[in-house]
Amino acid sequence: MTDQAVRVISPVVRGSGAIIVHRALADAMPGYELVSYDARWEYFPVLLPLLSCRDADLVHCTPEYAAYAVPGGKPLVVTFHNYVLDEFMRPYSSLLQRLHYRTDLLWAYRRAVKRAGAIVAVSEYTAGLVRQYLSPALPVQVIRNGVDASLFHPAGKTHPERGVRVLFSGNPCLRKGVDLLATIADRLAPDVTICVTGGLRGGLSSARRSNIDLIGKIAYSQMPGLYRDVDMLLMPTVREGLSLAVLEAMASGLPVVATDCSSLPEQIDHGKGGFLCVPGDVGDFAARANQLAADAGLRREMGEYNRARVEHQFVLGRMQEDYLRLFQQLK
């Protein structure tokens, strides 16, 4: 990565997938400074200007922040890591979230895209939503997320002494399909266990099963080892910008069972790197997980396909170079 003269400040909410992407940019680019803040600040946007960006030559942030605290005259790059303000997402949002989405956050998004010198989306699907709900004429550039294929890599050995382990990794919320896990678990073969990160939120405390292993919150530094200790990834989500968990699992040589919706078909080739299932169809998810659980050769074949796909299309260096090129154009 070549040096850049421009000083980029990047305010991003803590605890999100977005911060992983922005941290990777900070690690690679001299002059790129990551500033994290608590998500609750976005319910009180008057506080956001306290995270000053006045010393920046360029600001790179998500649309939630851009509308409130970016000083006038500063070049601004806004990245949409997802879009969840549309009516489809209403059943998957809390009352407070729905109010937030339909009022101040929608206003913030509209202001952000008017103010931005460049608008980025992490997938073609997300770019389409941004244009559909904010403005059809928006010049949205797609820069796909990338992962470190040297950090996330396949395991060097198998685990014949135990049953098949299926990983569910993500915030335990309705959007991610956490409410489906207990029913899926009831339909799995006896030697298949779902390992769930994130603790007991999202209703899992009342849906305990002997084949659901609540492994709790896992530090990001421990995630590469976790992927190497499981056999596949389960993603019954209904909306993804471009899932980092899916890319990390693919880089780790795992097949993926996910929903056939949003940006997931841009990541997973159905029948080659895993299976894309009917949204909400627990029977479909369970059947595909059981199919993979019963066939170690198929898991290996699909995992190798996914690893090669990441190395070809989703490497971290390509994402970093695309952003650096964009920043240099705007400075």
Walk me through the structure.
The structure is a single chain. This protein is α/β, with parallel strands linked by helices and 331 residues long. The chain folds into two domains: 8-146 and 315-330, Glycogen Phosphorylase B (Rossmann fold, 3-Layer(aba) Sandwich), CATH 3.40.50; 164-313, Glycogen Phosphorylase B (Rossmann fold), CATH 3.40.50. It is built from eleven helices and twelve strands.
Kindly identify the CATH topology of the largest domain: Rossmann fold
Largest β sheet strand count, sense and barrel closure: 6 strands, parallel
Q: Under the CATH scheme, which architecture of the largest domain would be assigned? A: 3-Layer(aba) Sandwich
As a percent range, the share of strand residues is 15-25%
Distance between the amino and carboxyl termini: 17 Å
Q: How much helix is in the residues?
A: 25-40%
Low-confidence stretches: 199-203
Give, in order, the helices and strands.
EHEEHEHEHEEHEEHEHEHEHHH
What is the count of DSSP helices, taking H or I runs of 4+ residues?
A: 11
Assigned CATH class of the largest domain: Alpha Beta
